[in-house]
Amino acid sequence: MKIAPSILSANFLNIQKDVKIVDQAGAEYLHIDIMDGHFVPNLSFGPAAVQALRPMTDMVLDCHLMVEQPDMYIQQFAQAGADVIGVHVEATPHIHRTLALIKENGCKAEVVVNPGTPISAIQELLPFVDAVLIMTVDPGFGGQKFIPEVVNKIRQLTKIRKKEQFWFEVEVDGGINDTTIKECASAGATIAVAGSFVFESEDPSKKVALLKELTKDE
Ligand SMILES: O=C(CO)[C@@H](O)[C@H](O)COP(=O)(O)O
């Protein structure tokens, strides 16, 4: 399983140091939460933050857009250095167009589903995506409690993925720690985002190593 530390919980006064720590600890992805204060009740980063992070690491920059009208921002995030751009199925009536736009801009296209949204809502999109992000908390804040009922959706998606021989990544995000990551991994998740568990600890490097160790056989 790949580990994607979420910089929402990192130390913004010394972000370069935190990025280096998780990079050296073996994290493959760096998860960047983009919040607009409309789609979710919180504000975070814009394309300038992604541009500043890009020269700091070769980790995959995984931009999770929690924004309304995502099409307005795709090109800016792509030009800033995003590798993966995730857009919520709940955020636009034209999600297929948005996913195509992400690919046209040279990035991997990811569709994101909230805890209250069924897998059936994205089923027709599965042939077009590089990744599906299943939210295991309601988006907007770090440090929330994992919603265990969502594990069933990871299983459902994994079943479809195997049956149809799709190769998209199955990413999980929210409340991931040394217990919940095991449930997600056994259900078929391939990437785990972890914010507070990693960065609000004494030793983020050890936490990344622990998450990798716990899921090394998945
Ligand atoms: O998308 C989000 C929150 O909306 C996440 O990426 C959080 O940043 C994860 O934080 P933890 O739940 O791991 O503390």
UniProtKB/TrEMBL annotation:
Residues bound to a divalent metal cation: 31, 33, 64, 173
UniProt remark on cofactor binding: Binds 1 divalent metal cation per subunit.
PROSITE patterns: RIBUL_P_3_EPIMER_1, RIBUL_P_3_EPIMER_2
Gene Ontology molecular functions: D-ribulose-phosphate 3-epimerase activity; metal ion binding
Active site: residue positions: 33, 173
Listed cofactors: Zn(2+); Mn(2+); a divalent metal cation; Fe(2+)
One GO process term, biological-process aspect: pentose-phosphate shunt
Catalytic activity: D-ribulose 5-phosphate = D-xylulose 5-phosphate
GO cellular component: a single term: cytoplasm
Keywords: Carbohydrate metabolism, Cobalt, Isomerase, Manganese, Metal-binding, Zinc
InterPro entries: Aldolase_TIM, Ribul_P_3_epim, Ribul_P_3_epim-like, RibuloseP-bd_barrel
Pathway of action: Carbohydrate degradation
Annotated family: Belongs to the ribulose-phosphate 3-epimerase family.
PANTHER family linked: RIBULOSE-5-PHOSPHATE-3-EPIMERASE (PTHR11749)
NCBIfam families assigned: PRK05581.1-4, rpe
Classification via HAMAP family: RPE
Protein name: Ribulose-phosphate 3-epimerase
Source organism of this protein record: Liquorilactobacillus sucicola DSM 21376 = JCM 15457
Taxonomy of the source species: Bacteria, Bacillati, Bacillota, Bacilli, Lactobacillales
